[in-house]
Amino acid sequence: MKSGIHPVYETRTFHCYGCGEEWTTRTTLKPSSSDGKVHLDICSNCHPFFTGKQKLIDKAGRVDRFRKRYAKVTPAEASDKTEKTDKTDK
Q: Mean pLDDT, the chain, as a whole number?
């Protein structure tokens, strides 16, 4: 290997704020605090996707509300409005 171009590959301790889990592994990441640990907000032990506690958001309600709101205006009403504005502009 060429010297001086590769990052330092060291053993670091990772700490998760979400669940308090700590583990040691080798990485090129620099520690984010003075205690020498790399701190994470969430890890695979407490992330909802990996634990199976994920909540799915129903977006169909939003689409239905949008369609109901704009279904009140019919195309005939919309064309009447554009004709009136065209006549006043000329």
A: 76
